[in-house]
Design a protein that fits this description.
- With 200 residues, this protein is α/β, with parallel strands linked by helices.
- The protein is built from 7 helices and 9 strands.
- The chain has helices at residues 38-47, 78-88, 106-118, 144-152, 158-165, 185-193, 195-199, and strands at 11-16, 32-33, 36-37, 52-56, 68-69, 93-98, 123-128, 131-140, 168-173.
- Helix 2 packs across helix 4.
Length: 200
Amino acid sequence: MTVEANPPVKAAGFVLAGGRSTRMGQDKAILQLGGLTLVERCLGKLRTVCDEVAIAGGKPELERYGRVIPDEAPGCGPLGGIVAALEQSAHEWNLFLPVDAPFVPDKCLRELLQVAAVGDWAAVIARADGRLQPLCGVYSRTMLPALRRELAEGRWKVAPALELAGRVHVMDFANVKWFANLNTPAEFAEAAEHADALDA
């Protein structure tokens, strides 16, 4: 599918930062990588393709980086942040990026938005090396009622909730390293050592 140079749809962008960072031992969002915190890196990428950006979930201290939208259901995983963001969004299309995936390039985000604009889908999500990346994707607000119902009934897995909420298009990307999650101090240290190569 051919895509244009610029996103043809207006969208809101949200950094998903509501995790407890248990394995990291500290809040991942404020870890410094290449001179910026992870939340700053992700907000910067979203600003290149979105009309407005905010932080979905996360501690109140993150307000110094941008608007923070509290989780719809704290402790219920990223689905709570997604539902809260969709509840407050004024845009039909909403682009999500997890705070612990700082190497997703803005061109990937742009392509997700471009494809969302030309197809009859409720969501467009990334996949790399056969693995779905449901937290890196574009969601229509039409999905909100179904996602809210899944959250209320205690089914917190994002991918199954998406399947129930509407027609989902999957976009394949060749570079699996873009979607590497930094969950532990060892993963973060390795990423920091190779940040320039991973950003390329």
